[in-house]
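SEQUENCE AND FOLD
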Amino acid sequence: MTYSVSYLPIVAEKDIPKLPVTMRERIATAIEQRLTTDPLRYGKPLQFNLKGHRQLRVGDYRIIYRISEDMVIVSAIKHRKDVYED
């Protein structure tokens, strides 16, 4: 099964432009290779206020997402020190 990926507007407007260019490429590759093929296998489930979401680690960055049927919805892409603050 192949999953499609959707980004919340805040991710496209704020998170992605703030990423270093090399990390943008690594994150794009991780999303393409891992989240579109098997997001349950590669992502770690989160708890507390992010229950229902999962996170994928790419270097020092975290991709926070949730799965809805055959779609992966990316909620945040931030550095590990900043991602859980909101």
